[in-house]
Amino acid sequence: MKWYTPPKWKLRSFLLAMPLICLAMNVIMFEDQLWSNRMVWWVSFPLIFVIGFAAWYIFILQADATQKKYPGLNQSRQRIIHKILVQVLILIAGLLLTFFVYAYFNIAGYQWQNNHVAKGFALGLFINLIFQTLYEAEYMLGRYKAGVEENEAIQQLSEEQAYDTLKSHVNPHFLFNCFNTLSSLIAEDRQRADAFLSELSKVYRYLLRSNEDGISTLANEMLFINSYYRLLQTRHGEAVQLNIQIDKRYEHYLLPSLTLQLLVENVVKHNALSKNKPLLIDIFTTAGNKLIVNNNLQPRSIKAPSNKVGLDNIKAKYELLKRPGFQVMEDEKNFTVVLPLIWNGNREHKELINRKMQSGNI
Question: Do 13 and 92 belong to one domain?
Fold first, then answer.
């Protein structure tokens, strides 16, 4: 079993405060006897110190577990309420046990008094409030800094790889096929041609904007991939089928922009597709904040040229964000990509970006 090691600053702050806490507790328990009873100094002070350290360590463990359960800045209310409720229960249990042990074993001549318990609870609550306020402030500041650093990192990646990203996204072959499809539709069905052109403009407007943003919410990525899929349907009909199952709780999570477009484009590029043997693409979320993109394997008889820019680009973005979990898996029947979804620690900022993007009907 691996012991949890608290940060050094928390340990130091506790050790500095503990002598005063020991003194206050012994004043409550022994009152005037504090200065005349040597047993208080030789026995009770060390014992209170040990008990205080054990209680502090339990509080630290509980706070760490709560932060993992409610990690986001927008979950601060749930996190704080949960901490308060659990730690008050721990405090009451710890104080009652301490006073009972002291009275039962008559440590340093102590005798039980109800008002001692009330004073001890007030002292413990006050001390715990101070420490937990400091710990929560430090945690929230850390989460905020992490969110800022992630945005800066993804923006840096976007700038450094802007040319390669644009080259991989704005595929000339894809454009050529789209214009051929549009040309045919104009002659055959003007209404479908208008709809196709509308979707095409949305797709490329999103492509160009996403090169600036670098990161997007899952909800926006899904809106975009639906537009992109409608283009594919116009070109390939029922030969391409997309099945989406997204848990709504993940809609505000983040992932690198255009990730889904790159993956779907990659699937269509490297697989044979027909009405009798459709290409099936599944996009769904799973526990553990993961987005899965899976397709049945139907390799083309003549392989399409590939420089693997798409997969390498996605992998590089996750590495820069220091987010493990990106996986590519393949067997005889399926090709699967696992994408870790990133908790949106700066949700208000992302929602502002989303509103601006949605105003362009993306």
Answer: yes
